[in-house]
Amino acid sequence: MTLHSFPTSARDLSAMAWRWTRRSGHALAVHAGAFARRAASALHARTHAAGAYLHARSAARPATAIAVLVVGGVVLGAGATQGVAAAKLAHLQARSDAQQVRLDDTRREAMREVNARAARLGELQAEANRLNALGERLTRIGQLGDGEFDFNKPVGIGGEGPVRDITAGEVRGGMDTLGAQLADSGKQLSVLESLLFNRELDRSATPSRLPIVNSYITSGYGGRADPFGGGRAFHKGIDFHARKGDPVLAVADGVVSFSGRRSGYGKVVEVDHGNGYVTRYAHNSRLVVQVGDLVRSGQGIAKAGSTGRSTGAHVHFEVWQDGRVLNPRKFLGEQDGQRKRM
Questions:
Q1: Alpha-carbon distances, residue 153 vs 67, 125, 143, 197 (angstroms)
Q2: Does the model's pTM come out above 0.90?
Q3: Buried/exposed code over 254-291 (b: 16+ C-beta within 10 A; e: otherwise)
Q4: Cα 191 versus chain centre, distance
């Protein structure tokens, strides 16, 4: 390089630096590529040698390689089988748990249903007992024969097949229907009881028995010869033989409306039976009831005697209805007939 070729300015120096850098970079790139090619060649050679070595070893020991492969396959297969079995077991356990939950729910629901049916059955049993008691009472009131209605004896029922299992819904429906029938029957029997009770009250308040026991009629109702004057007189009642002090009995239920003396009758008791009937018991020796006393049929109300216009101890008995005197015999016909048969 001659002297005149040196750069004389900054611009020349920059151009020279750029040219030098370009040449240096090209050289470096050439050297790097060569180095990479040599390294790759060496790596390929070493890899090939290793593969050959392994191939030789495998060829020299084929049984060992096969054994390794078989054992590896068995181990892998056993692991896979165990995993599948564990998964199936977990699935079955989950299903069993779910079924147990449903079974417990079903059992609780069934127990609630049984308890509800048991409570309803108790109600029906109580209603049936009430109806049985009511029926027995009606049997007594109605004076039905023994054995005609035995409420303690089961009724006979029958039927023919085929038979099938009954469902819970049918049981509920049948019990509800039975409950409705029992309720209706109870209402009807209650009405019947009321009617029979009223009839029994009427019967109890109607003269229907003798005013004295173990006796007989000495003078009947109607026209007869007067025992004192000898002329004809109208006898308003019936006379019964009695001994002084014999109990005089009320012929029906009622309330004492008079207890004292009346002209011609001596000591008298009159009983108002509340249905238009009034009975009179005369010629008594002693009175044992007072006005306002409640008396029952067959209850003693006086002692027989001969007070008033009387020739001897006896019971004079009269029946009045709505202010009119009646023949007492028609009220005493059944009792009188029984007495005569005795």
A1: 91, 15, 19, 25
A2: no
A3: bebbebeeeeebbbbbbbbbeeebbbbbbbbbebebee
A4: 24
Q: Residue 293: is it exposed, middle or buried by C-beta count within 10 angstroms (0-12/13-18/19+)?
A: middle
177 within some domain: no
- The one-character DSSP state at 82 is H
Other Cβ atoms closer than 10 A to 238: 24
Look over the chain and give the mean of its residue pLDDT values, rounded to a whole number: 76
Res. 217: pLDDT tops 60: yes
Q: Decide if 91 is inside a domain.
A: no
What is the rounded average pLDDT of the residues 321-329?
A: 92
What is the sign of the dihedral through the CA atoms of 158, 163, 166 and 170? negative
User: Which residue pairs from 114-123 have beta carbons closer than 8 angstroms and sit at least 24 positions apart in sequence?
Assistant: 117/171, 117/172, 117/175, 120/175, 120/179, 121/175, 123/179
Question: For 46-82, what is each residue's pLDDT tens digit?
Answer: 656 655 654 565 555 555 656 555 556 655 666 667 7
Residue 276 domain boundaries: 217-341
Between residues 67 and 230, which one has the greater pLDDT?
230
Which residue is listed with tokens 């029926």? Answer: 135
Tokens of 80: 């896979």
Residue 312 lies in a domain: yes
> Domain total for the chain?
2
Please check whether residue 242 is in contact with residue 215, taking contact to mean a CB–CB distance below 8 angstroms: yes
Q: CA separation (Å) from 224 to 217, 218, 221, 262, 266?
A: 14, 12, 8, 22, 20
Evaluate whether residue 19 is within a structural domain. Answer: yes
Say which CATH number the domain at 264 has. 2.70.70.10
| Band of pLDDT at residue 246, cut at 50, 70 and 90 | very high
